[in-house]
Amino acid sequence: MDLGPLRALVTRLNFQVHNSVPATVTVPDGDPVTTRIHWFTPTTDDYPTGFDVRRADRKRLMGILTEDVPTVPRGTIVEAPEKSGGESLRWRVDATDKVEVEHVRVLVIPAPEF
Amino acid sequence: MALVTARKTILEAFKARLEAIRVTSGYNTDAGEHVFIGETVVFGEGDPAYAIAIVPAEQNRDFRGTLKSFSQFLVEIQIVLQTDARQPWLVIDSVVIEDPWLVIEAALQDIKRAVEVLENGKKTIAQYRIEAGQVRTVSREPGRTEVGAGVTYAVMLEETWGAP
């Protein structure tokens, strides 16, 4: 019995239930793709180590479904609100954090257009 | 007894020079608004985009059986800056600077210009001879918006036993 479609459905439902928001993802030289992204709990460790003056700004971690966006290279633009119902903001993928079976986790930074 | 020591005098002189860093005085940043000594400061969202720490480092005092020691008092000037694209704050010659490495270089220029001034034509600080040490930089890491730099100076100290 092929459980792939069932797994994909469960993953998508999970994304929709747990802190996911609608998003438009555009990889470099690609077309915009409408999907949903998941915000993971941001980390706030202070940086840089070894300095007497440091900052503890949020490191934002985002999950993107690979079924909708197979690869998410650095420089990919994501337009999504920071929380459900919020204003859509522009983010840029800064690095890949982890590749899971159904989604890829990426670090993003704000990338507004002026 | 009054707190008067060579180290204190030198650190106060560093602070005074760094607090002069203001855009209105021809510098790239206003980092002189936030200068700290002797404490670890952790800024977060809503805090200023930059801060300077004056960090006394090692001082190897060696009296060699006499009552006088000649030593180098190392002081590192550390600066940490934010490069959040939502609030680009660095403007040089009417150009908004966003590249992290350029922000670092602008900060280094400010520190060097503020500290490396001549007293009566000499390389001194509070009348103590000062030499330049190493420069280190902290690049932006993935997912972060902070960069930093540190400039070390060596101040030549002569101390008398029991009379710092």
Provide an overview of this structure:
The complex is a heterodimer of chains A (114) and B (164). With 114 residues, chain A is mainly beta. Chain A is built from one helix and seven strands, in the order αβββββββ. Chain A has a six-stranded antiparallel beta barrel with strand order 1-2-4-7-6-5. In chain A, 28% of the residues are buried. Chain B has helices at residues 6-18, 100-115; strands at 35-37, 41-43, 50-59, 68-82, 91-92, 95-96, 124-125, 128-138, 146-160. The radius of gyration of chain B is 18 Å and the shape is elongated. The model of chain B has no long low-confidence stretch (mean pLDDT 92). Chain A binds chain B through residues 44, 46-48, 51-61, 94-95, 97, 107-112, and chain B through 36, 39-45, 47, 51-53, 55, 78-80, 82, 84-86, 138, 141-146, 148, 150. Strand 3 (53-55) of chain A pairs parallel with strand 2 of chain B.
Secondary-structure element order of chain A, N to C: HEEEEEEE
Extended strand count of chain B: 9
Strand content range of chain A: 35-45%
- Main sheet of chain A, how many strands, which sense, barrel? 6 strands, antiparallel, barrel
What order do the strands of the largest sheet of chain A run in, or round the barrel if closed? 1-2-4-7-6-5
Biggest sheet descriptor of chain B? 6 strands, mixed
List segments of chain A where confidence is low: pLDDT < 50 over at least 5 consecutive residues. Answer: none
Uncertain runs of chain B are: none
Order of helices and strands of chain B: HEEEEEEHEEE
Classification by helices and strands of chain A: mainly beta
The number of helical runs of chain B is 2
Helix content of chain B: 10-25%
The strand count of chain A comes to: 7
Please report the number of helical segments of chain A. 1
Q: Main interface pair?
A: A-B, 24 and 29 residues
* Mean pLDDT across residues of chain A: 90
Distance between the termini of chain A: 52 Å
Query: What sort of overall outline of chain B do the alpha carbons produce when their principal axes are compared?
Result: elongated
The 3D shape of chain A can be described as: globular
> Which structural class do you get from the secondary structure elements of chain B?
alpha+beta
β-strand amount of chain B: 35-45%
